[in-house]
Amino acid sequence: MSQISLENTMVSKKVAAKRERKIVTFFKRLIKSPFGLLGFLVIVAVCFIGVAAPIIAPHDPVATDLSKKLLPPLTTDYLLGTDQLGRDILSRIIYGTRISLIIGFTTVFFAGIIGTVVGIIAGYFRGWIDALLMRIVDVQLSFPFILLVLIINAVLGTGLKNIILSLIIVGWITYARVVRSEVLAIREKEFILSCYATGVPRWEIIVKHIVPNLLTPMIVLASLQVSTFIIAEASVSFLGFGVQPPTPAWGNMLNEGKNFILSSWWLITFPGIAIVITTLGINLFGDWLRDELDPEINNNG
Which domains does the chain have, with CATH numbers? Predict the structure, then answer.
């Protein structure tokens, strides 16, 4: 028993060492990529701001003071100025980071799960199941993305939970199409055909052989979709169907500030900059991650 335990310990150490080398190699390659590193640092900074919002925000984001309304940037105690109700713009942007991250990551997680399951079922079993599921996808794709989100929100109502639900309902189709195409390619590979020949159960083929080969494209797609959902939330909130005031969200800050665009430019400028920086950082890191994890690109390089 002691010999077996020793061998198991050695195997565990080798696995841990191999995992550690992969992580070190990953960050070494990331450091060598200026744009990938910049995107990663932006994501880390945004996540830190969202988590530490109660600590770093200088004021209560929903506290109003009409005696201090529409103060310009660099005013004492108000670095980015105040809005039409005297609320601190900087504090609202900081707390709005939380809303954007919650919506972006939550939507990607659940839309990814639903789309992956649908894509695996359609691509593996094919036949009438594939045809039915893909027709549902085609019907949904016939509607513009934002329009469909607005329609769903009009039915469900406004608020954080409903905007997340509407984005999940609309967003899963992207994952379903990508996963289906990947599964159609994987199921024709030799190692899958050998599983068929040896009588391996379908569930085992899917869980042990197909799903692991889907992780890389799904990680890449998810990293790029986060920014898409953040922009979608901001767009819907700007139109008044998303997160509602006084909850600080970048989209409704733009909506509230649009009437003061000529006289108080900072009301929409700074939330807009926050959206641009966040989505740009996520896209830069997502592009680098795609190039890093795509074996075809790596082989050609």
Answer: 107-241+251-300 (1.10.3720.10)
